[in-house]
Design a protein that fits this description.
Blueprint: E1 18-20, H1 21-29, H2 34-41, E2 44-51, E3 57-62, H3 68-78, E4 94-102, H4 108-121
Antiparallel strand pairs: 1-4, 2-3, 2-4
């Protein structure tokens, strides 16, 4: 008898990616999610964090030198990733998803415009967790 590595978990694609907070932490540290980390490291984009306790949204972006993997890794460590409105909330009720992905060469202005669109569409400034 021997101990085998856990079977790799296939990446579901960006359109089907929804993670609760414990799943996010597993994706960041477990070998079986290596393909997920590779995929998340390959794109920049707009993501959504939903606080499932009250339904409030936080729309964020990963752009420039920071890819989605880097941004989400910060959330997996402390739950807030440096965002003021997320500090003090219990991240165990967070659900993360990707709204839109971009090639890393996409101009920052285009990504900022998409982020602004989603903040407006989801009303995350007035009824959510975005301050700006």
């Amino acid at each position: 008898m021997e101990i085998a590595d856990a079977q790799p978990v296939p990446f579901p694609g960006f359109d089907a990616l929804i993670l609760d907070y414990p799943q996010l932490q597993a994706v960041m540290r477990e070998h079986r999610y290596a393909a997920w980390r590779t995929a998340l490291a390959s794109v920049v984009g707009i993501y959504l964090i939903t606080d499932t306790r009250d339904g409030r949204h936080y729309v964020g972006r990963a752009d420039g030198a920071e890819n989605v993997l880097q941004r989400w890794a910060a959330y997996s460590v402390n739950g807030h990733g440096g965002n003021v409105e997320l500090r003090g909330l219990d991240p165990s009720s967070f659900r993360l998803s990707v709204l839109r992905v971009f090639d890393p060469a996409t101009p920052t202005g285009q990504i900022n415009a998409a982020e602004s669109h989603y903040k407006h569409a989801l009303d995350s400034r007035r009824h959510g967790l975005n301050r700006n």
